[in-house]
């Protein structure tokens, strides 16, 4: 699994950044987004094994730099981001394409954390004893997973708000009772 280096690892980050700073090499892999999440995205990755003995971090087998460029479809707003990382997988175990794919998968997990924090304000949760914190987080992830499984033009927060204001619609929406009727959320049953 690739590990994205954050600002709290300043030496590690600056060492990797310095290595890739003036690279003129072509990217080892390029992935183009297909317009998911209302944006067009290009992700490029450069990998190296040259830093393995130099970096002071356990089990480093490859270091990488990922460049993300995206354009939001409606406003046309462009963004550019560069991230650095390491992995314990050798070049034979994980090529650039695999690392880039795994890194993207990591961000989908992060987006779930973000959704839970934002929609449930989980950081200020008062449940602190026993298995309570773990169980409430599982229930929240389950709820988000259910809402994601429904094909809708609405965002997860919009769907949550709509269902929160009409408890009866929750059972209809999930088709949990015999007399459930189809619920339309923006034209999707």
Average pLDDT, all residues: 81
> What's the SSE pattern?
EHEEEEHHHH
Class by SSE composition = alpha+beta
The helix fraction, in percent, is: 25-40%
N- to C-terminal separation? 38 Å
Largest sheet: 5 strands, antiparallel
Write down the oligomeric state: single chain
Q: So what's the overall shape?
A: globular
How much of the sequence is in beta strands? 15-25%
Q: In which order are the strands of the major sheet placed?
A: 1-5-4-3-2
Counting DSSP H or I runs of 4 or more residues, the number of helices is 5
**Overall strand count:** 5
Give Rg in angstroms.
21 Å
Uncertain residue ranges: none
Describe what this molecule looks like in 3D.
With 189 residues, this protein is α+β, with helices and mostly antiparallel strands. Among the domains are: 3-94, no CATH class; 151-189, no CATH class. Helix content is 38%, strand content 20%. The protein has 5 helices and 5 strands. Strands 1-5-4-3-2 form a 5-stranded antiparallel beta sheet, sandwiched between helices. β2 (29-32) and β3 (39-48) form a beta hairpin. α2 (96-120) packs across α3 (132-149). The longest helix is centred in the middle third of the chain and has 25 residues, at 96-120.
Provide a compact summary of the structure.
With 189 residues, the protein is of the alpha+beta class. The protein has helices at residues 10-20, 96-120, 132-149, 156-164, 167-174, and strands spanning 3-5, 29-32, 39-48, 62-72, 78-87. Strands 1-5-4-3-2 form a five-stranded antiparallel β-sheet, sandwiched between helices.
